[in-house]
Amino acid sequence: MQLHGTRGQQQQVIIIVFQLDVCIRSQFSFSPFKNEENKGKYHITYALPFEDGSFIYVDYTTKNKDDGKVFETTVEEVAKSAGIYREGDVYGPRLVVLGQGWVTKGFEEALRSAELGKEARVEVPYDKGYGPRDPRKERHYSMRAFEKGEPPRAGALVEVNGEVGTVLSVGGGRVLIDFNDPRAGKTLVYEFVVREKLEKDEDKIKALVHRRFPGLKRDDIVVVLDKNSCTVQLPESANLMENAAYYKAAAARDINKYFPNVYVIHFVDTYMFKAPQQPAQQAQVQVSSQKGQQA
After folding, report:
1. 214/70 Cα distance (integer angstroms)
2. Which residue, of 76, 129, 165, 282, has the fewest CB within 10 Å?
3. Where are the domains of the chain?
4. Model-level pTM greater than 0.85?
5. 122, 106 in Cβ contact below 8 A?
6. How far apart are the first and last CA of the chain?
């Protein structure tokens, strides 16, 4: 955004602009025109704290505005209190690359103008969230389709032909299942904090790898960047993960996508063993002991 005019006119505009929440958190700068025609006038520019391509780590909780039901959270304590905690899930700030559609449109707009480390809240209508509900995604099935598993019950999640849906009702030998996203058609509330913004390319690549290996500690991943190549050293625990080869391939594709000039990617596996005892030192001790006995 740029404003033109005298310094006094610009100050009046700024007073109005600063009433807007998004601009309060923006960074303004003044720069004078260099030509004679506009002498005494200034450019006023501002930039939002985060922009397309920014790598940020975010803690967030998504709720239904109407009843406060928690759909998703990165905070373990919130997950436990809301009754959605799952053993084995990894909790903690989540990587978001802005402009890539990793989160809903409404949430991403809020992230662009957020302040680092400051708690924030935004309401996102369904048209900027998960879209409207589609009545065609509510389908009836015969109870016989579920004879091999547990009997379906209202509210349970079931999988049919690779699709996961929510059981709406059971009766008369039929089961009504809703395959809409549970968040579709709802106004969502996001409570969030941007914890970190990554600046170095090595840190961004490390974050992309960690996204594919969430069970690892980010600090245990070592990245060495050298012109068109990148070497990623993983801890030994990565080798024990199921589908580790797939995760490496996915991470390599991510690296090349966001860093096109890096087209040679090496993964180095680490295996740690106990160091062997030093036999030479033991022999020296034995020889010294024998000499002492002869004396």
Report:
1. 22
2. 282
3. 2-47, 55-130+185-194, 135-178, 200-269
4. no
5. yes
6. 93
